[in-house]
Write a structure and sequence with these properties.
2 copies of one chain form a homodimer. Chain A has 223 residues and is mainly alpha-helical. Chain A has 2 domains: 4-73, Winged helix-like DNA-binding domain superfamily/Winged helix DNA-binding domain (Arc Repressor Mutant, subunit A), CATH 1.10.10; 78-221, Four Helix Bundle (Hemerythrin (Met), subunit A) (Up-down Bundle). Chain A is 72% helix and 4% strand. A 3-stranded antiparallel beta sheet of chain A has the order 1-3-2. In chain A, strand 2 (63-66) and strand 3 form a beta hairpin. In chain A, helix 7 (135-146) packs antiparallel against helix 8. The radius of gyration of chain A is 19 Å and the shape is globular. Chain A binds chain B through residues 9-10, 13, 48, 51-52, 55-56, 58-61, 67-68, 80, 83-84, 86-87, 89-91, 93-94, 98, 149-152, 154-155, and chain B through 9-10, 13, 48, 51-52, 55-56, 58-61, 67-68, 80, 83-84, 86-87, 89-91, 93-94, 98, 149-152, 154-155. The structure holds a DNA duplex (30 and 30 nucleotides). Chains A, B: Residues 9-76 form the HTH gntR-type domain.
DNA sequence: ATTGCTCCGATTGTTGACAATCATTCAGAG
DNA sequence: CTCTGAATGATTGTCAACAATCGGAGCAAT
């Protein structure tokens, strides 16, 4: 039985995906208003599904909606990013702890392999492409999965990581942090391999808190 | 100028509120299917707004939707509750830390007053009414506010607390924990008053982790 | 008896038209 | 000239009809 090559999706789900990408890549800029009629005709669908897609993006915190006034792309100013990184610190810290408690040896090996691949990529094409190609997300994504906590996974992958991608796309990123990041990643994996939840959480929180500090410093310097 | 007594809301927002209450109180039971046609006629609205309301509830994690098959009320089994309490531990721990760093003296005093009121209520009407009347939520709600972190507040108040209310409504709750809970609340406030973020986070995490252990024990015993 | 197929009813997904609301503009009074 | 406020255009909210899809009942063949 041949499986269908194109997975049939509902129009609003497809619209939701397109909108998500448009927002993250900056095709729809921060604070920009989302006109229902405009987007509907542009995507070749009706306003009904599009409205539902917007409701979905609201749930992901990518847009903010105000009744009778429409939806606007969320604005990631310094305060919002500070909030985001604190929440991320809490959630990924917990994810690392739970991953340390529950990841199988096989999964840990896969993680190590992932970091090896990342290291090679960095050596070959300069640190820049690491963040740019979202290799960094691979790592954090796998840790989230390792926690076996579905709610944690949904929160991180479905909401926080989208906002982070959005931020990363729009601010050019420091490539001098890649080596430090990779080293910290290895330390975290080591703690997970040892089943040391306390240490894994501590290291992940430091890793994220440090990333925020350097982003913040860069933002304050560049403007 | 007299402010309007009835705040005009959109139909889908009103439906969203009604549905939320119906789910939390158990009027719509866990796992039950939400029929669009049925609910729409019952609420006296059309299917359009109702569908948007369901999308909103999906964002709050109160229902789970599968394309072409409808939406069902989420099932809070043991595994889901375990996940929920771990996430809560991480987020409220962070909220307590930030509250300790940022709450004003005045706000802390208000918190102390709140706990005094709670204590009186417990003495007067037995411990039972404390959890039942959602006095416990008052406390956690104020701490979230104190964090000054809007994303944290949205996550806790808009999503996690709804699920917790749902759980609390349906499982009769231990009243022998009220005294211990109150004592722990006081310790947390003390840490916040001292501006000791480390301790505030630690105590809150213990508080929540302890609550989960006793709930889990009760569930395993009762079935 | 069980497996597979077809048809049918019920439910969800989608559409375009209609109603309500908001923001802007422009006229007129002070 | 400024401020108020009423008309107007554009945008969002709502509705009811239509199309697409899923699940199950019933029947036939092995």
């Amino acid at each position: 039985m041949p499986t269908p090559l194109v997975v049939e999706k509902t129009l609003s789900d497809k619209a939701s995906l397109r909108l998500t990408e448009a927002i993250i890549t900056g095709e729809l800029q921060q604070g920009q208003k989302l006109s229902e009629a405009d987007l509907a005709t542009r995507y070749g669908i009706s306003r009904g599904p599009l409205r539902e897609a917007i409701r979905e993006l609201e749930g992901m915190r990518l847009v903010k909606r105000v009744p009778h006034a429409g939806a606007r792309v969320v604005k990631l100013d310094m305060a919002a990013l500070a909030d985001l990184y604190r929440v991320r610190e809490a959630l990924e810290g917990m994810a690392s702890r739970m991953a340390a408690e529950q990841m199988s040896e096989q999964e840990v090996n896969a993680l190590v392999g992932l970091l090896d691949a990342h290291e090679k990529q960095i050596e070959k094409s300069g640190g820049e492409s690491y963040f740019q190609s979202e290799g960094d997300f691979d790592f954090h994504f796998h840790i989230a999965q390792g926690s076996r906590n579905q709610m944690l996974i949904d929160l991180l992958v479905g909401e926080l990581y989208q906002l982070l991608r959005m931020c990363r796309y729009q601010t050019s990123h420091l490539r001098n942090r890649t080596h430090m990041a990779l080293k910290q990643h290895r330390q975290i994996v080591e703690a997970i391999a040892d089943g040391d939840g306390d240490l894994a959480e501590l290291l992940m929180r430091r890793h994220i808190s440090g990333a925020w500090k350097s982003i913040k410093a860069m933002m304050e310097e560049n403007k």
